[in-house]
């Protein structure tokens, strides 16, 4: 009923509201148990990651506490990970169609896989494990927010977050052609041309270090797209952009980007979302 627009207004009927409230009173213990279990998993994951990979400039005697936290969190993390894996497999077996139609379950699958790689696989390098750990923390936080959304008090806020995010990214994908077009234009205008440089020129540096190129943000198409996406937030950093190569064209296209994308398009997306 809640997934059908024609019947959503019936959820406000007093009889249905009373029925849903009675059902909530019967199953709320299951919600709190599941929430407590997942909070234990998330806290164990964060403590294990920070005790294993984070850098703390602490004294030698305090490192014993970190080692103890690492071992305790590792045990709790392994136990809760197996329970979480069993829960996902049970849900997948009980209702596979409904399971794979829910976006939250994909987050849990990726979270279980990444956590298992952090805990059990020792082959990745230290830097790779730190990157996986950062992804795991974000996924755990997203899942915790969605799990709080199952409570009637927070459900409206989480539904608004999901709906606005979905609408925003849906329209953003549609208008991404303009963003990519501007990014490629910036790459052509602002990227350094190695053939135009004077090979006999000598760079004067101070303290034996070279300052980063002004056009490093547009050094290749991928970097240009990334820089353009950052510019959508209003972080233009126009003072570091070299407009001297094509002063008229580059300034016109940059001004068009500011008005058309940063101002008009973003406000349009906010209104549509």
TrEMBL record:
Cellular localization per UniProt: Membrane
Q: Which InterPro entries match?
A: Ion_trans_dom (IPR005821), TRP_cation_channel (IPR052076)
Q: Which domain of life is it from?
A: Eukaryota
Q: Which Pfam families match?
A: Ion_trans
Any one of the GO CC terms: transmembrane transporter complex
GO function terms (MF aspect): monoatomic ion channel activity
Recite the UniProt keywords alphabetically: ANK repeat, Ion channel, Ion transport, Membrane, Repeat, Transmembrane, Transmembrane helix, Transport
Using the UniProt record, give the first listed, main subcellular location. membrane
Q: Which residues form the signal peptide?
A: none
| Membrane topology classification | Multi-pass membrane protein
* Protein name per its UniProtKB record: Uncharacterized protein
According to its UniProt entry, this protein's organism is Dendroctonus ponderosae (Mountain pine beetle)
């Amino acid at each position: 009923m809640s997934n059908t627009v024609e019947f959503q207004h019936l959820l406000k009927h007093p009889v249905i509201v009373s029925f849903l409230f009675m059902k909530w009173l019967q199953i709320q213990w299951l919600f709190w148990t599941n929430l407590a279990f997942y909070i234990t998993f998330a806290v164990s994951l964060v403590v294990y990651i920070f005790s294993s990979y984070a850098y703390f400039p602490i004294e030698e005697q305090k490192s014993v506490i970190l080692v103890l936290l690492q071992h305790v969190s590792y045990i709790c993390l392994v136990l809760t990970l197996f329970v979480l894996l069993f829960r996902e497999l049970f849900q997948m077996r009980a209702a596979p169609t409904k399971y794979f139609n829910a976006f939250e379950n994909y987050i849990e699958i990726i979270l279980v896989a990444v956590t298992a790689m952090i805990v059990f696989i020792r082959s990745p390098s230290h830097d790779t494990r730190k990157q996986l750990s950062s992804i795991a923390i974000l996924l755990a936080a997203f899942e915790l927010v969605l799990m709080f959304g199952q409570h009637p008090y927070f459900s409206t806020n989480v539904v608004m977050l999901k709906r606005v995010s979905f609408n925003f990214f849906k329209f953003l994908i549609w208008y991404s052609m303009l963003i990519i077009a501007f990014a490629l234009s910036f790459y052509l205008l602002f990227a350094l041309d190695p053939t135009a440089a004077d090979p006999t020129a000598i760079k004067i540096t101070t303290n034996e270090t070279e300052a980063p190129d002004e056009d490093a943000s547009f050094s290749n198409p991928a970097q240009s797209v990334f820089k353009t996406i950052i510019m959508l937030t209003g972080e233009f950093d126009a003072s570091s952009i070299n407009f001297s190569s094509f002063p008229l064209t580059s300034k016109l296209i940059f001004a068009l980007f500011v008005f058309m994308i940063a101002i008009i398009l973003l406000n349009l997306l906010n209104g549509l979302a």
